[in-house]
Design goal:
Distance between the termini: 44 Å
Number of domains: 1
Number of strands: 10
Radius of gyration: 16 Å
Strand order of the largest sheet: 4-3-1-7-8-9
CATH architecture: 3-Layer(aba) Sandwich
Helix content: 25-40%
Length: about 170
């Protein structure tokens, strides 16, 4: 499936950083190339907002990564990792991304969700059926919810050109 993309289309991109990070790591032992994903998502259209949602750990190790996201053109939204009694950790942005998507949909023609998380299915359905907003999903096909792929107006499978969208880690000797 391929949606028509016009140069005057106002587009917003919302990236579930943790989902994409863990997908690339588990599938390829690599990092996600967010700059290339941003270029693909914009597709010569009018970019209004590009938001990347990430979770901060207790250390500052991820700061260079966050700086790179901002340098690539993303507005970064972060929150602290929650650690519950018993050691359970939680740091998802599902509600925050959904609220921002709904809020932004009034000034956008298309919303691109960069995630494979099936929890966004109700959001896709709401944006399409209630708001009339075009929806696109970009993710690694093997780690993306089949229902999410089907519900979106367009799905871009990063695995179709995987070497463009991953950064292989340099091996230490």
């Amino acid at each position: 499936m391929s949606a028509i993309k016009y140069t005057d289309q106002r587009v917003g991109i919302l990236v579930d950083v943790q989902n994409m990070y863990h997908s690339a790591k588990s599938l390829y032992g690599a990092r996600t190339n967010f700059l290339e994903i941003l270029k693909t998502a914009v597709a010569s259209r009018k970019l209004i907002r590009a938001l990347a949602y990430a979770t901060r750990s207790e250390s500052e190790e991820e700061q260079p990564f966050f700086d790179a996201l901002e340098k690539a053109g993303f507005e970064l939204k972060t929150k602290e990792l929650q650690i519950f009694p018993g050691g359970v950790k939680k740091g998802d942005w599902d509600v925050g991304i959904a609220v921002d998507a709904i809020r932004l949909s009034t000034s956008l023609d298309t919303i691109v969700l960069v995630t494979g998380d099936g929890d966004y299915l109700p959001l896709i359905e709401y944006l399409k059926n209630t708001r009339g907003t075009k929806t696109e999903v970009i993710a690694f096909g093997r780690s993306c919810s089949a229902k999410l792929k089907e519900a979106a107006d367009d799905f871009t499978d990063l695995e179709d050109d995987v070497h463009k969208y991953i950064i292989k880690s340099k091996r230490r000797r």
